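**User:** I keep going back and forth on a fold encoding question. It is easy to fool oneself when nobody else works the same problem. Could you pick a protein and write out its sequence and tokenised fold? Could you put it straight underneath, so I can go through it closely?

**Assistant:**
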Amino acid sequence: AGAAPASGKMICVAMNTKFRAEVVPGDTLHIETKLIKTLAGLAKMSGQIKVNGEVVMNGDFSLKKLDRRPT
């Protein structure tokens, strides 16, 4: 049992990414992430994506939930 998924709009910035193998339509992606730190609503994470147990991409990224603005 994991945490409930976040709702609303978010922005993601990827850094230091490295693609290690080709991914094609139909592949099932398994995404593993590790939370590095949070600060003022910004989450810094590190992660990797695997296909059939092989790492096909890894990198660092930051997530920030966008505030809702009154309409």
